[in-house]
Amino acid sequence: MSMASGGEGPSSSSSSSTPHKHTNRLANERSPYLLQHAHNPVDWFPWGQEAFDKAKKEDKPIFLSVGYSTCHWCHVMERESFEDEEIGKILSDNFVCIKLDREERPDVDKVYMTFVQATSGSGGWPMSVWLTPDLRPFIGGTYFPPRDHGRRPGFKTVLTRIMEQWQNNRSTLESSGDRILEALKKGTAITANPGESPPLAPDVANRCFQQLAHSYEEEYGGFREAPKFPSPVNLMFLMSYWSVNRSTTEGVEALQMALHTLRMMALGGIHDHVAQGFHRYSTDSSWHVPHFEKMLYDQAQLAVAYITASQVSGEPLFADVAKDILLYVSRDLSDKSGGFYSAEDADSVPASGGAEKREGAFCVWTASEVRELLPDVVEGATGAATQADIFMHHYGVKEQGNVAPEQDPHGELQGQNVLIVRYSAELTAARFGISLEKVDEVLASARARMADVRTRRPRPHLDSKMLASWNGLMLSAYARVGAVLEDKTLLERALQAARFLKEHLWDADRQIVLRSCYRGDHMEVQQIYPPISGFLDDYAFIVCGLLDLYEATLRPEWLQWAEELQLRQDALFWDHQGGGYFCSDPSDGTVLLQLKEDQDGAEPSANSVSATNLLRLSHYTGRRDWLDKSQQLLAAFSDRLTRVPIALPEMVRALMAQHYTLKQVVICGQRDAPDTAGLLATVNSLFLPYKVLMFTDGNPESFLCQRLPALSSMTQQGGVATAYVCQDFTCTLPVTDPQELRRLLLDGPADAQTD
Questions:
Q1: How high is the mean pLDDT in each 10-residue block of the chain (755 residues)?
Q2: 25-188: which CATH number, 3.30.1330.60, 3.40.30.10, 1.10.8.80, 3.20.20.70?
Q3: What is the DSSP string of 179-196?
Q4: CA 361 to chain centre
Q5: Any idea where the Spermatogenesis-associated protein 20-like TRX domain is (predicted)?
Q6: Residue 729 exposed, middle or buried by CB count within 10 Å (0-12, 13-18, 19+)
Q7: Do residues 267 and 250 touch, judged by C-beta distance below 8 A?
Q8: b/e for 468-498, b at 16 or more Cβ within 10 A?
Q9: Are strands 343-344 and 462-463 parallel, antiparallel or unpaired?
Q10: How many other CB atoms are found less than 10 A from the CB of residue 202?
Q11: Do the domains 25-188 and 661-754 sit in the same CATH topology, yes or no?
């Protein structure tokens, strides 16, 4: 697998031979987003004590600007305001200016985003917030244009007004900020009363299904009209809901909603048909014109959703898409250390020239480019059709471009085509009078030639920061897809990712996960000092990845590390009063709100993932307290689960897992023997959302036998690999035949014995 080499940052940070007129402290940082602002005429500080001390000493308000390196409007605000000498001077003279990468410090971002949403009714990035020297927010917003525009004040006017208010009306500003902060503390508290139980799973799951069905868009799938996000958490819930409601009309409808959405996304322009992977979201309801940035967390969750759809339906399309996503990640988002990079930008310089970056330039095509590239006549095709004719018909390429003006407000895609599958291969074959095999061959060779051309275009900026949480999600993806497809290369890549996490993002001396590490100038892995300590999602997503890796490879050392990490997560983040986990370490005094993420959005909430992790680990370790913790966590969120379960579909899955109790599938055998592999492949070929898979080779000293003494009594029958399926400590009679195991897992036991 070749590794990625993306261009560095947009606008001011791109390295060039001309010396920079300005350089600020951000030049010493490693975050690609902070480095993009290292040559602004603004006296930027990174988030930290030096900036806080200066604000206190000079009694100045803090201007906090938050974004991330692949954020389009962050680039716009930088170009318009932060590169402007006059605005830069106003900022530097009157404020202590702090730049923050929200992906490095999601805890700080969440606190001030909660404030901005509460005070302005909306949020987003770039986020602009003004704070007192003791970090309390008093005014906030998002993007500001540089100068006044109609009735909308420009950034310069906003700064002037805040300076006047700070001079003349400071006490009012501070007290209204304090009032809002106190209200937010009360309003964001998520706690369970002592002894409270979680809500009833079937009721919550039914309501979640009804709410999703209500927002479902039938023609193209997905939820709401536009913009449309992939929302893998919704799709995973729907498939899990089906698995326990297979015989009901609701269950069948849930499955149809999930599969139709996944199918339409795979055909749409949100899916990169030439260079694989998925863009962030679609600007229209037909998944056609995307916002072109590619995020690691989307690739990870979508790979899992697609491989799950393949388990459920047996359709090859879904497995192909899952492989296709991992091909993209292995090629373009992989570091040679085994880590994964964060994202690729939407904007890049057009191949036709010009210095101005454009949205989607790396991915779109004119009709004449396609014709020039694919001129060969296809043998036997009607009307001497060329490869280009067939390709353009199939992928909806038009002479005048296929992007409607309303999808292109800035005119960046005029005359361009975003590829979208318009016809089935069968219809395309019929239209040109050729065989299905011939169509597949023509389209595959055309895509390969176009991929080759794309490698020579200027690449979009690559955010080469490596985050523990997103690497944990990606670990799950490689482990799960590799297990289902029995693909050794994917499983080896999963092991490489786990070793990377342990080597570079685990501080063994302090026993903490680190949030991030970085790619150095010579492709080495670098760390900042002091490094950023991990947050709740870093622990939760890695633990989940390690459990998935254990089930894919049966190597107990990863189970053991998952147990250690869960113990550390409990010590650092558990709320002993109200149940559930805080997002960040409650002992950090610079983070003003102790929040618990209560939404499964673009990424699942770490509490949702933890609820399932605790349940799985309680089965692997025999620790009853982890089962209790999982219940306390779900009880803490019971109000939200009962009222708006659509906000927490991943947590509803955890609630269902608790209700339906996990099956323990125990395989006894020799780890790498073919008969063991046969039973393992059977388990992995099925979508069994409510199971834990265990392996024992009969060694009483092994990790699992030490924790689960009952495993020692399970043995191979007649010297061949043997499976037991247990629920509530009741086990079936042992089976050695993979088909018999398959029947047991799908239908339940014909007869059982109590262990």
A1: 38 54 96 97 97 97 97 93 97 98 96 93 94 95 92 94 96 90 89 89 98 97 93 98 96 98 98 98 96 97 98 97 98 98 96 87 97 96 96 98 92 96 97 97 98 96 97 98 98 98 97 97 93 97 98 96 98 95 92 92 97 98 96 96 97 96 94 94 96 94 93 91 89 95 81 41
A2: 3.40.30.10
A3: HHHHHHHHHT-----TTP
A4: 24
A5: 23-185
A6: exposed
A7: no
A8: bbbbbbbbbbbbbbbbbbeeeebbebbbbbb
A9: antiparallel
A10: 13
A11: yes
Q: Residue 670's Cα: distance from chain center in Å?
A: 36
Backbone φ and ψ of 343, nearest 5°: -170, 160
Listed residue (349, 391, 358, 394) closest to 372, CA to CA = 391
Query: Closest by alpha carbon to 300, among 273, 320, 321, 325?
Result: 325
SS3 label, residue 481: helix
Cα gap 464→442, rounded to integer Å: 35
Distances (CA, A) of 162 to 83, 91, 183, 566: 21, 11, 23, 45
Helix axes 468-485, 488-504, angle to 10 degrees: 160
Residue 694 to residue 550: CA distance in whole angstroms: 9
Backbone φ and ψ for 136, nearest 5 degrees, come out as -85, 130
Work out the angle at residue 243's Cα, subtended by the Cα atoms of residues 242 and 247, and round it to the nearest 5 degrees.
65
Helix, coil or strand: residue 288: coil
Query: CB-based contacts of 729: which residues, under 8 Å, 6+ apart?
Result: 710, 754, 755
SS3 annotation, 554-591: CCHHHHHHHHHHHHHHHHHHECCCCCCECCCCCCCCCC
Question: With respect to CATH, is domain 661-754 assigned 3.40.30?
Answer: yes
- What distance separates the 2 farthest-apart alpha carbons in the chain? 88
Question: For strand 752-754 and strand 730-732, is the pairing parallel, antiparallel, or unpaired?
Answer: antiparallel
- CA-to-CA distance for 305 and 352, rounded, in angstroms? 37
For the record, the structure tokens of 381 come out as: 């095709």
As given in the structure block, the two tokens for residue 251 are 């269950």
Residue 247: strand, helix, or coil? coil
Which residue type, as a one-letter code, is found at position 166?
W
User: To the nearest 10°, the Cα dihedral for 347, 348, 349, 355?
Assistant: 60
Q: Where are the domains of the chain?
A: 25-188, 220-462, 661-754
CA angle 445, 451, 457 (to 5 degrees): 150
Helices and strands (H and E) in the chain: how many: 27, 22
Looking at 424-487, list the stretches that DSSP marks H as alpha helix, in order from N- to C-terminal side. 425-432, 436-455, 468-485
| The overall pTM is greater than 0.90 | yes
Q: Are 237 and 656 in contact (CB under 8 A)?
A: no
**Residue linked to tokens 């209200």:** 183
Contacts of 755 (CB under 8 A, 6+ apart): 710, 713, 726, 729, 730, 731
Contacts of 750 (CB under 8 A, 6+ apart): none
